[in-house]
Amino acid sequence: MITYKNFTFIGTSHISSQSIQEVKEVIHNKKPEIIALELDQKRFFALLKENKQKTSLKDIFNMGFVPFLINAVGSYMQRKLGDLVGVKPGSELRQAILLARQNKIKLALIDQDIQLTITKLSKNFTTKEKFRFLWDIIKSPFAREKIKIDLTKVPDDKIIKMVIQRLKKRYPSLYRVLIDERNKIMAKNLYNLKKENLNSQIVVIVGAGHLPQLLNYLKEYDKKSI
């Protein structure tokens, strides 16, 4: 948990029982007027649906095959890891939404529209990175290096930093579109939210990998406004 001005940031893991508990405790203790989530409208409603819609050929065509594959592999891995610890992906966000409804707390969705993110990824993901991604999928079961992580907890800062740096080096366009640009957008949305709610306590719930850079961008926006 990190506090900055009238913000309280929670960096979460989307399959971590620790994150669910931290969301409960922070919202109970801080009693915020607003909860800001790393979601857009499409992902917000998809998260609340019990039955997941099947992906059609039209969806794959609109998304682009490689972005679809990245999304499918990422979703599959999250579901499988979630099964290991008995936590559905995004449960900490569902918990925040439930508490917001129960306590009549306003919700703010601060992320970029998922379709726009996918479109950008489709346009910017280079041929070299596409082949690299496919190769990494093929060789991953045989990889020698193993990192021990307690899935019930949020990974520590060193592991998060290492993973982000590897992603940035190996897939620069993917890093730029999925992390860096979204961090700038979420920071800008939080800055505007703060300007409109100067006296309100705001709890922000984002993936732990976004938090350090997101906070730096928010501070930059604050400096520019002085």
What does this structure look like?
It is built from 10 helices and 5 strands. A hairpin with a 2-residue loop joins strand 1 and strand 2. The chain is of the alpha/beta class. It has a 5-stranded mixed β-sheet with strand order 1-2-5-3-4, with helices on both faces. The model is unreliable at 80-85 (pLDDT under 50). It is globular. Helix 9 (172-196) crosses helix 10 (211-225).
Give keywords.
226 residues; alpha/beta; 5-stranded mixed β-sheet; 10 helices; 5 strands; globular
Question: Short summary of the structure?
Answer:
The chain has helices at residues 17-30, 41-48, 57-63, 65-85, 91-103, 114-124, 127-139, 157-170, 172-196, 211-225; strands spanning 2-4, 7-12, 34-37, 106-109, 202-207. It is of the alpha/beta class and 226 residues long. Strand 1 (2-4) and strand 2 form a beta hairpin.
Secondary structure blueprint with pairings:
Layout: E1 2-4, E2 7-12, H1 17-30, E3 34-37, H2 41-48, H3 57-63, H4 65-85, H5 91-103, E4 106-109, H6 114-124, H7 127-139, H8 157-170, H9 172-196, E5 202-207, H10 211-225
Parallel strand pairs: 2-5, 3-4, 3-5
Antiparallel strand pairs: 1-2
Helix pairs in contact: 1-5, 6-9, 8-9, 9-10
Give unreliable regions as ranges.
80-85
Cα Rg: 18 Å
Mean pLDDT figure: 81
Q: Calculate the terminal CA-CA distance, rounded to whole Å.
A: 26 Å
